[in-house]
Design goal:
The protein has 250 residues and is α/β, with parallel strands linked by helices. The chain is built from 7 helices and 7 strands. The chain has helices at 43-57, 81-92, 109-116, 146-157, 186-205, 209-212, 216-231, and strands at residues 30-35, 61-65, 95-103, 106-107, 132-138, 161-162, 167-169. Strands 1, 2, 3, 4, 5, 6 and 7 form a 7-stranded mixed β-sheet that branches. Strand 3 (95-103) and strand 4 form a beta hairpin. Mean pLDDT is 91; it is low at 245-250.
Amino acid sequence: MSRLPHLTAAAVDIPDPARLSTRASDHPPRILVLFGSLRPQSYSRRLAREVERLLQHFGAEVRVFDPHELPMVDAVDADHPKVQQLRAWSHWSEGQVWISPERHGTLSAVFKNQIDWLPLSEGSVRPTQGRTLAVMQVCGGSQSFNVVNALRVLGRWMRMVTIPNQSSVPKAWQEFDTDGRMKPSAYYDRVVDVVEELVKFTLLVRDHSDYLTDRYSERKDDVYAAQLARTAGVVEQVPPPPPLAVGDRA
């Protein structure tokens, strides 16, 4: 520690490979899919349903959130049923897929509104932190990566683990048939790549997300708060012992 005088020793945690080598969960990966359009012929919704089928094929449990009837952020209280559903499903998830159409060079307001309803923290719950994330976009014209780049920034802000692969589907109106199914193409193959990679990363991360997102700066704040409490003479309350069973009473 003499070489690092600015470190708070009590808050330092040397990364331990052993803590990343165990897997406790055996349930299917839980994936939430969000899409960003309310149009009846929404191609982001069609892609979301294609992703849902692929995720299920790869063994995941999937929920696709429908943004219809979700109010604009702050227009109503957070106890609105649609807001509560979105937050509960985000907390339920271990990974997410974000799919937005490109509008004016960036993600749609419909999509951003869903993320704006998800707080970074809600009491002791962080609805997105440590969850894996895959990003996709659909384009009305030529291929662009504006939306997936913006979604990566947003995912980092929401403290998510965004996988390396991504999908951008140009001229989306040409890539789906009359039944809403995605046609075979190199773009479809990339969607499969992304889904497969997301499931793999989710299996790797989900049992270790709390450890992976355990931060020195936050532990340092805890150490400082404990020091202040001791200085102020605050005594930690010790809970009373449990009552004796009938046979144990004197």
